[in-house]
Amino acid sequence: MPRVAAKICGLSTPETLDAALAARAAHVGFVFFAKSPRNVTPDQARALATRAEGVARRVGVFVDPDDALLAVAIAAGLDAVQLHGDETPERTAAIRQRFSVETWKAIPVRTAADLTAAGRYRGAADRLLFDAKTPRGADLPGGLGLRFDWRLLEGYRHAAPWALSGGLDADNVAEAAGITGATLVDVSSGVESAAGVKDVDRIAAFCQAVGRL
Ligand SMILES: O=C(O)c1ccccc1NCC(=O)[C@H](O)[C@H](O)COP(=O)(O)O
Fold first, then answer.
1. Catalytic residue among 9, 169, 186, 207
2. Residues 190, 199: Cα–Cα separation, whole Å
3. Would you put residue 137 in left (φ > 0), alpha (ψ -120 to 50) or beta?
4. Is 0.85 exceeded by the ipTM?
5. pLDDT digits (tens, 9 = 90+) for 116-149
6. Which has the closest alpha carbon to 166: 186, 138, 139?
C-alpha cells in the first residue's frame, strides 16, 4: 500500500483514463459541470466509469448539483461524489444520506480563516478536499492550477479524512505532501497540456512522483 495516493481529476477520454489506471492512480475524477472544459455527459461518464470499475475509485465532481443530476451521474457508476460548490453541511449530509454514497466536500482555502469552515462538515462529509480558493468571478471553482499556502495545514487538526488539491504537479507534490502531511493528493491542470486536455506523460510523471513518497 503506497504511503500517498493520487487522484487524477477531470478525465474525459478513454486514453487518458487508461494512463491514470496504468500509473496506479487510486482515484479518478469526472467533472459534471457544463462550464468546465473537462465536463462529461452521463453517457461519457458511464463508459469511463465502466473502464475504471474495480481498478480505481471513481469520483464525480459537482457544483451545487440538484438531485436529478446526482441520480443520473451516480447511476453511471460512481464510488464517491465531490461537492465543489456552496453546498452547506446540511445539503452535504442530505446528499450522503439520500444517495448512500461516499461524499467529499471541497473547502476553498486562501487564509487560515477559511480552514474554520472545514469543521462545520464534521459528520456531514466522508472526506474534505482542501483546494485553492479561486478569484471572485472565476468561471470555475476548481481546476485552475492555483495553489494556497500549504503551511496553513502544518499541524492542523483535521475534522475528517482529507485530501490536498490546488496547483499540484509532478515537481511540487513532494514538497506539498511533506509540508501538509497529505496522504491523498489531487491534480487536474498540472497533468494537462492545455485547459481540459490531459497529457498521458504528465499523468505518469505525477503518479511516479507520488509513488516515490
Ligand atoms: O476541474 C474542473 O474543471 C472543475 C470544475 C468545477 C468544479 C471543480 C473542478 N475541479 C475540481 C478538482 O478536483 C480539481 O482537481 C482541483 O480543483 C485541482 O485543480 P488543479 O489546481 O487544476 O490541479
1. 9
2. 9
3. left
4. yes
5. 889 999 999 999 999 999 999 999 999 999 999 9
6. 186
Ligand 1, pocket residues at CB < 6 Å: 9-10, 29, 31, 33, 36, 38, 61, 63, 84, 131, 140-146, 165-168, 186-190
Three-state secondary structure readout of the chain: CCCCEEEECCCCCHHHHHHHHHCCCCEEEEEECCCCCCECCHHHHHHHHHHHCCCCEEEEEECCCCHHHHHHHHHCCCCEEEECCCCCHHHHHHHHHHHCCEEEEEEEECCHHHHHHHHCCCCCCCEEEEEECCCCCCCCCCCCCCCCCHHHHCCCCCCCCEEECCCCCCCCHHHHHHHHCCCEEEECHHHEEECCEECHHHHHHHHHHHHCC
Pick the atom of ligand 1 nearest to 29's CA: 13
Q: Which amino acid, one-letter code, is at 123?
A: G
CB 96 within 8 A of CB 125: yes
202 contacts 195 by C-beta, under 8 angstroms: no
Cα separation, 106 vs 102, whole angstroms: 13
Residue 207 bears catalytic tag? no
Structural domains of the chain sorted by starting position, each given as residue range(s) with its CATH number in brackets: 5-211 (3.20.20.70)
What pTM was estimated for this model as a whole? 0.97
Residue count of the chain: 213
Mean of pLDDT values over 81-95: 98
